[in-house]
Amino acid sequence: MLYRVLTSRAASRRFELMSCCRTWALHCRRITSQSDVHIASAIGSQSEGLGSLNCQQVVFLLDEVSRAGLRDPDLWGRYASRALTEVSTCSMDELCSIVRALCRADFSKRSLLNAVCRRLRVEAHKLSPRSLAQVVSDLRKLNHLDGPLLSLLVGSRILVMSHFRTFDLPLVLCAFAQVSFRDEVQIHRLGQELCSRSGELTPSVITATFYSLALLDCGKDGTAAHLLCNSIPRVIGDASSRELVNLAFAIVILDLHAAEILSYILEQLARQSAMIGSREVHALHIIECCVTSPEAFRPEMRASFLADPTSVSRCTDALQHIAGVIQDVPVNYAVSGSKLQKRLGRFLDRLSLPHRAEAMIGPYVLDYMLPLKIAIEVDGFKHFYSFSRRLTAKSKLKLRVLKALGWHVVSLPHFEWLPKTQDERLAYLACQIEDVSGKPLAEIRRGGGCSSSSSSSTAVACGAAARRGDAVALRRGGGARAQEEKQDVHQLLDYLRNALADAIEAEDARVLEDVVVTAAAKGFPEDELVPIFEVLEHMWAAAR
Question: Helix, strand, or coil here: 182?
Answer without folding.
Answer: coil
